[in-house]
Design brief:
Length: 104
């Protein structure tokens, strides 16, 4: 697709751009790439979060010392975020199931 200006008072071309058509193959590739990026980011962030939680939980057991205060604080934030997200997800899931049963 080529875009050009068609103004008779201004004979010069304002914009000429060849834009590729967005066909099914391109849309599928973009969707796959977006899903791949989201899944990769979620896996990496989950591994980091679980690492912080496990280090905070098992450091006193194996080294007989208290974990650093920063790890304790981050561990609490991460656990709170996971429980809060799970509660919201569970609420949405239950409300969707309830709504589906009413319409049928």
């Amino acid at each position: 697709m080529t875009m050009t200006a068609s103004d008779p008072d201004n004979p010069r071309v304002v914009t000429t751009a060849a834009m590729p058509a967005a066909g099914p193959a391109r849309a599928g590739g973009d969707r796959f790439l977006k899903r791949f990026v989201v899944v990769t980011v979620m896996i990496v962030s989950s591994l980091i979060a679980l690492g912080i939680i496990f280090v905070t939980a098992f450091l006193p057991v194996f080294l007989q010392s208290n974990p650093p205060e920063a790890l304790v604080n981050w561990g609490g934030i991460i656990i709170g975020f996971y429980f809060g997200t799970f509660a919201g997800l569970l609420k949405d899931w239950l409300s969707d199931e309830k709504g589906k049963g009413d319409t049928a």
